[in-house]
């Protein structure tokens, strides 16, 4: 019954607001959820892709709603045993959530991430007003996508060396 109600609402919104209206995307997202719950993964994917297409036209790139849509699309692809396609969508979602500095607990079902690293800072006075400063940051990030078996390592190293002339006197 929920599927029929969502389809009716989508038809009404499309007629009154236009096919590209964000409310239609919301209805399509609800239809996706109902179809997924009923076991119709192909229909759910079609509804979710239609919702995502509308959202992409109305939201800025990297918006958390787009990330959620892509996360759910990745879930559907994993359920349909298409891990290579799912990886692309899940990585896109992860990147968007990081960009927006948000966290989605659904990612824990697909991704294990570990980080390890260190920071070195040093400052050496040359005179009362002059000093040299240096820093080194090193980090290793390991990602493992469940079900697809894909694992990747990322290494990040950043250094800084500066000569500082500071006439501020602190007492």
Number of contiguous helices: 5
Shape: elongated
As a percent range, the share of strand residues is 25-35%
**What would the average pLDDT be, to the nearest integer?**
86
Question: H/E series, N to C?
Answer: HHHHHEEE
Radius of gyration: 24 Å
**First-last Cα distance:** 75 Å
* Share of residues in helices: 40-55%
Count the beta strands.
3
Decide which structural class fits the backbone: alpha+beta
Q: Major β-sheet, in short?
A: 3 strands, antiparallel
For the largest sheet, list the strands in their spatial order: 1-2-3
Low-confidence stretches: none
Structure at a glance:
The chain has 171 residues and is α+β, with helices and mostly antiparallel strands. The protein has helices at 2-17, 22-38, 41-58, 64-79, 83-99, and strands at 111-125, 130-145, 151-165. α1 runs antiparallel to α2, α2 (22-38) packs antiparallel against α3 (41-58) and α3 (41-58) packs antiparallel against α4.
Written account of the structure:
The protein is α+β, with helices and mostly antiparallel strands and 171 residues long. It contains five helices and three strands, in the order αααααβββ. The protein has a three-stranded antiparallel β-sheet with strand order 1-2-3, with no helix packed on it. Strand 1 and strand 2 form a beta hairpin. Helix 2 packs antiparallel against helix 3 and helix 4 runs antiparallel to helix 5. 23% of the residues are buried. The model has no long low-confidence stretch (mean pLDDT 86).
